[in-house]
Amino acid sequence: MSPIRVLLADDRTLVRAGLVMLLDAEDDLDVVGEAADGAEAIEAARQLRPDVVLMDLKMPRVDGIEATRLLTGETFVTDPDRLVRVLVLTTFGDDELVYSALRAGASGFLLKDAAPRDLISAVRAVAAGDGWLDPGITRSLLTEFANRPQPWASGTHAFDVLTPREREVLVLVAYGMSNSEVAGWLGLGEATVKTHLARVLMKTNLRDRSQAIAAAYQSGLVAPGSQPPPSPCRP
What we know:
2 domains
């Protein structure tokens, strides 16, 4: 199996140097490039096609949030199974930035004082299509989300933040399909489906797959008794 290709985006040279030493020591991780700001990260990602971008949020020119939005957009890659997955590096006091990056499409968040083993685990998890939330920010996020209204239950357009593909995956999941079934239905890899679903949960503040299914029905995105849309991969 090929190593996980990692691109580092941080405006501090010493931080990047430390990350290179840590990640390149793992046989299944390969740091393929570095960027000092969001603009460089976008250009490097176009050329190097990383699996995971380890993204700082506060950088000059283009910040990490805007870079994340562009990197995870459906027009950034031509191969739907070669998504760019973003793992954000953040500090404890950046809650609002965390919420913004969630909606921009980040697959995970890690505090900069996390243990090295946690960083390595987070990179592997995000590369596999899973989400990752550092325990240090999970409580803060859950508290904030609990105090916010549930837009999917109040008639507002909570799913407008999703891309067409993310909405498509959510609908199929709401019809009871497993990740492998959704992958076969859409002609995608299973890890790609997992990434889309992880982004759905992150962007909409939904806790898990079950809550996402409930929200899809409560919002009217999926009607009870209806049938899944036709598969583009089946005659």
